[in-house]
Structure formats: structure tokens, C-alpha cells
Amino acid sequence: MVEQLPASLDGVFRALADPTRRSMLRALSAGECNISELAAPFSMSFAAASKHVKVLENAGLVRRKVQGRTHLCSIEPAPLAAVDEWLRFYERFWTARLDALDALLQAEDRATENFPDRKGRQ
Amino acid sequence: MVEQLPASLDGVFRALADPTRRSMLRALSAGECNISELAAPFSMSFAAASKHVKVLENAGLVRRKVQGRTHLCSIEPAPLAAVDEWLRFYERFWTARLDALDALLQAEDRATENFPDRKGRQ
């Protein structure tokens, strides 16, 4: 028996690099769906939709529950939390930019206050 | 002249789905590097490293400044901020799990307080 490997960031990012799979995740965020329901918004065969679900499943993003002939899918948030964790290291880069922009705007505001005749000028 | 298309989430996720490229981004988080510096930690040719940098560049994650024969690379955080923005929608799924776990632990704590003889039992 082959044990399923724990989902890697590689697989999670690869699974998310497709707009159909991101749309499927969004659909699942509203609740469990079967494969036909996931395929419905796309002009896509059941087999093609099932293949996309398999990629999401292998990445650990979706859990599939087999009930008779129906495969019920649900969202699994843990790999998304792992992506979030990975991103946190880089947050300072984009917040630093926003802080710099904020400081610039505040400096401009102060300049306008010191030279009231500039008010209204753009 | 072909205008560069704005980086898409597809391209950003695809670029991040490789451990070498994620390591390169991490190296760039410490400051600008040239291609040889980025290649150094991997047993990888200059050409192979340059190819990885090109993927990061096309995804908008890296900017390349050509100074004579040196290509200086720096990190561009905007696409990471876009990934963060995309993730925010799903945050409630993993925080909900943590909240549920927290509630469970608190309920167990209360049970222990109400039945002090249970204290110390695991």
C-alpha cells in the first residue's frame, strides 16, 4: 500500500496555478459539492473536472468522501494556512512600501499646513 | 513592440511552485544579487539559474537591472501581496478550526475547575 505523502508547498502552489481549480475552491468555500456540481460552471467533461479535483486532492486542498456513486468534495484549509505562513516572511516588503507611501502623503500634508497658501493647489 | 502583460496569479503560483525559485526569493529578501550569487547555493549552471530568474521575472516577483555585464536582481513584492489578498478570503476556514480547538480546550479547563478532583488526571 502506498501511503499518501504529506502535501508539499510545491504541490499546493502548482494546484493553485490554475484558474479553474481556484474557482472550484471558491465554490467549495460555500459548502460540499459533488464533481458534477463542480464541473457545471465550466464547459468541461466530468472526467476533466475529476482530474482537476484530483490535483486539488493530492495537494491536500480538497477532501473527497465517497457516498455510493457520489463523490462529495470539501475544502481542506491546512495547506492554505501553510501558504499564509510562508507569505508572512515577505509581508514586511509590501507593508514597507505602503508605509513609505503613507509617510510621503503625511509629509505632503504637513507641507500644505506650513504653507497655507498652497492649499487647494494640486 | 510586445508590452509585458501584467503578472497573473497563474504565473505567480507557477513561479512559486519550485523550491529553487522560493530559495532564490529568500536570498533576494536580504538584498540585491546577481545571477552567479543566486546560482551559488545550488549545483546549477549560470544558464539554469538564469532560466529560474526569468520565470520569477515573468511573474513580476523579481526585477532585473542590467549594469554592464552584470544582471542585478531584486525582489518585487506586489505579486506576493496579490497572493496574500487572494488568501484572505480563505483565512476564516483555518482560523475557524483554531477557534474551535480553542473553545474545546477552554471547555475542558472549565470542566476541570468544576470538578477539582479531576485535576492532575490526563
Please tell me about this protein's structure.
- Two copies of one chain form a homodimer.
- The first copy, chain A, is mostly helical.
- Chain A is built from six helices and three strands.
- Chain A has helices at residues 9-16, 19-28, 35-39, 46-58, 78-88, 91-114; strands at residues 33-34, 62-67, 70-75.
- A three-stranded antiparallel beta sheet of chain A has the order 1-3-2.
- In chain A, α1 packs antiparallel against α4 and α2 (19-28) crosses α4 (46-58).
- The longest helix of chain A is centred in the C-terminal third of the chain and has 24 residues, at 91-114.
- The N and C termini of chain A lie far apart (71 Å).
- The model of chain A is unreliable at 1-6 (pLDDT under 50).
